[in-house]
Amino acid sequence: MGKRVTIQDLAKELNTTASTISRALHDHPGISKTMTKRVKELALKRNYRVNSVASSLRAGKSKTIGVIVPMINRDFFANVISGIEEIAFQNGFNVIICQSDNKVEKEIQHINTLISSGVAGVLVSLGFETSDYKPFDKISQLGIPLIFFDRAPSHEKSIKIVNNDKAGAYKAVQHLIDMGYKRIAHLAGPDNLSLYKDRKEGYIEALKDHGLPIEEKLIVSHNLKREAGYEAMKKLMKYKNPPDAIFSASDYSALGALLYLKEERIKVPEEVGIVGFSNEGFTKLTGPEITSVDQHGKEIGKYSAKVFFEEMASDVFIPRTIILDPKLIIRGSSLRNKKTID
């Protein structure tokens, strides 16, 4: 573990004073924009962390973790929050929950609110619209531990707790192939988020490995909501040669696909198989129950909180990624050939 970079080190490198560095890091109006930019760029380059967290803890001011999620009303994110809260409580911390609604402007507003509230750390799952990660730099520049979970940026200079989404998707498609399905469509998420790109890659790789063709028209990208899944399924089934199975990057769009097929009296899984992703609670309540990839939500939450406490105790920022292996939960929506299941 390397030596902690101090504010004096930055001042020496820029040939200025420690007080100037401190004021620049906190956007003091008395410091020029040029100097502020130089200071912040050097701070990021040197992995400098303001020791404000430790100071505030010594003063008894900050025992709160801020969490930003796209949606609270999803089983996966509820389970993540439960895991975070469990570890936080064990360490005498409280948790503030913010919901971005998948909107960039709300995400940025929450970042500023949490910083102003003096939180000790920020744990984030990105929204659908997020493609610029610069707003999050402000958190790191202030020395506040920042951990991304599930929906994380693709760049390497961050701490991420994620699933192996590519492997999860591969397992899902492999299972459909084992069940005898040949024309497998994919309801895909937005490419600006790496986890949806990884799920698409897993889908494509599984087809290639089993000698099945990749047809672009069988890949439908949308917002992964139930209504979008319904419309995507409707579109796909109008093709002259429609798919005989669906792998959806979300349980909600998988549910929409199932509802359309039931309306049209198309038998699931006999005529069309369905596999979703996330193992939402409703997947066990549909008829048939929906096969899905479980993302270990509570475990991701626990890991995220544990890494936060590790970061809080560390003098050096070390970018790293913790990857969990998702599990395929097989249910009736894809179980066309029961003899192949142990």
Cα-based radius of gyration, to the nearest Å? 23 Å
Going across the major beta sheet, what is the strand order? 2-1-3-4-5-11
| CATH C-level name of the largest domain | Alpha Beta
Order of secondary-structure elements: HHHHEHEHEHEEHEHEHEHEEHEE
What's the total helix number? 12
CATH architectural label of the largest domain? 3-Layer(aba) Sandwich
CATH homolog superfamily of the largest domain? Response regulator
How does the SSE layout of this entry go?
Layout: H1 7-13, H2 18-25, H3 33-45, H4 52-58, E1 64-69, H5 75-90, E2 94-99, H6 104-116, E3 121-124, H7 137-141, E4 146-149, E5 159-163, H8 165-178, E6 184-188, H9 194-209, E7 219-221, H10 226-236, E8 245-248, H11 251-263, E9 273-278, E10 291-294, H12 297-313, E11 320-324, E12 327-329
Parallel strand pairs: 1-2, 1-3, 3-4, 4-5, 5-11, 6-7, 6-8, 8-9, 9-10
Antiparallel strand pairs: 10-12
Summarize the structure.
With 342 residues, the protein is of the alpha/beta class. It is built from 12 helices and 12 strands. It has helices at 7-13, 18-25, 33-45, 52-58, 75-90, 104-116, 137-141, 165-178, 194-209, 226-236, 251-263, 297-313, and strands at residues 64-69, 94-99, 121-124, 146-149, 159-163, 184-188, 219-221, 245-248, 273-278, 291-294, 320-324, 327-329.
Description:
By secondary structure, this protein is of the alpha/beta class. It is built from 12 helices and 12 strands. It folds into 3 domains: 1-48, 434 Repressor (Amino-terminal Domain) (Orthogonal Bundle); 52-162 and 298-324, 3-Layer(aba) Sandwich (Rossmann fold), CATH 3.40.50.2300; 165-295 and 328-340, Rossmann fold (3-Layer(aba) Sandwich), CATH 3.40.50. The strands form 2 sheets. The chain has a 6-stranded parallel sheet, with helices on both faces. Helix 11 links the parallel strand 8 (245-248) and strand 9 (273-278). The chain starts with 6 loop residues before the first helix and ends in a 13-residue tail after the last strand.
